[in-house]
Amino acid sequence: MKVVNVVGTRPNFMKVAPIMRAMVEDEFFQPVLLHTGQHYDRKMSKVFFEDLGMPRPDINLSVGSGTHGRQTGQVMSLFEDVVLKEKPELVLVVGDVNSTLAAALVAAKLHIPAAHVEAGLRSFDRRMPEEINRVLTDAICDFLFLTERSAFDNLAAEGIPREKAFFVGNVMIDTLTANKERAERSDILDRLALSEKTYALLTLHRPSNVDEEAPLRRIADALVRIGRKLPIVFPAHPRTAKNLAKFGLLEDLQESGVRLVEPMGYLDFLKAMLSAAVVLTDSGGLQEETTVLGVPCITLRENTERPITVQEGTNVLVGSDTERIVEEAEEAIAGGTGKPRTPELWDGKAAARILTVLKEGA
Ligand code: UD1
Is 46 in the pocket of ligand 1 (CB under 6 A)? Predict the structure, then answer.
């Protein structure tokens, strides 16, 4: 079966890596790896291929940055040519970024079966670009691979037939499980002069948090207060770094003990995460990874499309309110998040389950 596996942004790479590997090892599949080029900086893209031992993409569309319409449209236009030429029997997309939706739409319009990995997650917040990408991608894909059971209800509520949905676990955790030992050996703590469990790790890039001054200032105020007690290591997304400078928030942060560093590769970041006293984030993937690692996670959002991380994991939702962020961070630092459970089927074998379903459905 010829399959085009599509990646575009940083969180896509660790989701496709185990699928790609499993397909290369199984002669039933003829995998093609396609990078849309949505993320293109070395630190946002190439370093992950190296860390994860992923083959170089067979095809790179090099679309780069742009408005949502332009970026999505460009992926569609270029990806259509690829699909017409390559004639795959399946297009596989992951996650919820613009590249995900664009590639799925092209496949659906050309009547090529499409698979969506990480389907059925819903934040119910349609102001998030990712929520639009999730809803539309699920509506047009033929195989929907679920990371948690709550997704069955979300899909049913949208009238999506049950037989399209398969609960297989979490490919991002496949990658974490496979790389944890290697990550332990990373020397990132030495390079940053940090020691185990004596710092907080922060990531921040959601448009609703960083694109406007008011929410970013509320978050920065909280970080200044937390940073005075515990150093905060902050590998900043390029867009966030730009906006912190634009709104004049950098100086206060740096004076208080928030350390802006360059985006990290996969292994360094995993090491930084498993050694952190607490993680503060607005990312989706980190809510899941901290759950499995048992590291407290304070999520700077009002909602999550990954409810199992709150119900069974270490995740607490706090939004962008200064007081709540400080309070929850203090509680987490004092050790107040309880014992997490690893969610069902987050066992490192999700990619194998996906391949089994695809073979049976072929
Ligand atoms: C995208 C995804 C988001 C995901 C995130 C992971 C969408 C709608 N958003 O957001 O869901 O959580 O990736 O990081 O698809 N930039 C660089 N270098 C790069 C890439 C981007 O400097 O390699 C800067 C550019 O200024 C660009 C901006 O970041 O304009 C935004 O990039 P974009 O790909 O549009 O979205 P992200 O914010 O990265």
Answer: no
For ligand 1, atom 34, name the residue with the nearest CA.
38
Question: Which of 6, 7, 9, 99 has most ligand 1 atoms within 8 Å of CB, for mutation?
Answer: 9
205 lines ligand 1 (CB under 6 A): yes
Give 195's DSSP letter. Answer: -
- Coil, strand or helix: which one is 192? coil
206 lines ligand 1 (CB under 6 A): no
Ligand 1: residue whose CA is nearest its atom 2: 97
End-to-end CA distance of the chain: give it in Å, rounded: 8
pLDDT tens track, the chain, 362 positions: 999 999 999 999 999 999 999 999 999 999 999 999 999 999 999 999 999 999 999 999 999 999 999 999 999 999 999 999 999 999 999 999 999 999 999 999 999 999 999 999 999 999 999 999 999 999 999 999 999 999 999 999 999 999 999 999 999 999 999 999 999 999 999 999 999 999 999 999 999 999 999 999 999 999 999 999 999 999 999 999 999 999 999 999 999 989 999 999 999 999 999 999 999 999 999 999 999 999 999 999 999 999 999 999 999 999 999 999 999 999 998 886 567 789 999 999 999 999 999 999 87
| Residue 19: closest CA among 76, 91, 105 | 91
Verdict on whether the full-model pTM lies above 0.90: yes
What letter would DSSP give residue 313?
S
With the most atoms of ligand 1 within 8 angstroms of its CB, the residue from 237, 243, 305 to mutate is: 237
DSSP string, 92-117: EEETTSHHHHHHHHHHHHTT--EEEE
